[in-house]
Design a protein that fits this description.
Helix content: over 70%
Shape: elongated
Mean pLDDT: 82
CATH topology: Arc Repressor Mutant, subunit A
CATH class: Mainly Alpha
Low-confidence stretches: none
Number of domains: 1
């Protein structure tokens, strides 16, 4: 049960809008010509959700989408973070870091508790076996 819970925590997909936006910002910053399909695949979310999130970020003025007029494929866009988007990304990063540090502290406590249970169970088993 614990292993399944840990696997879910380690393999979980972005669940909050903040976390999804943070990851979109990171990917766009690293790869401005990334497609929505590639974003969806990298984030493990649907293409529709990526489209919805990008539209929201564009409406808020945090992301700018540009297509190349000379490109024969008019559906190819380059996504750029605006100054407002850069500011929002830094705020999201701070919140994300704070949340991850809190999760880390909880995991450390849980690990210590499990270690003490294992040590106690092992010592108990040795004592019972000696009898």
């Amino acid at each position: 049960m614990f292993v399944q819970l840990l696997n879910r925590k380690l393999n979980r997909k972005p669940v909050t809008a903040d976390e999804t936006h943070y990851r979109i910002f990171k990917l766009i910053e690293a790869q401005p010509n990334i497609t929505q399909r590639q974003l969806a695949q990298a984030l493990g979310i649907s293409l529709g959700k990526v489209n919805y999130c990008l539209r929201a970020l564009i409406e808020k003025g945090q992301v700018k989408a540009r297509n190349f007029q000379r490109n024969p494929n008019k559906r190819t866009y380059v996504y750029l973070l605006t100054p407002k988007g850069i500011e929002e990304k830094s705020q999201l990063t701070a919140r994300f870091l704070y949340r991850k540090m809190a999760e880390y502290e909880l995991l450390k406590q849980e690990i210590e508790q499990l270690k003490s249970e294992v040590c106690f169970d092992t010592a108990e088993a040795v004592r019972v076996g000696e009898g």
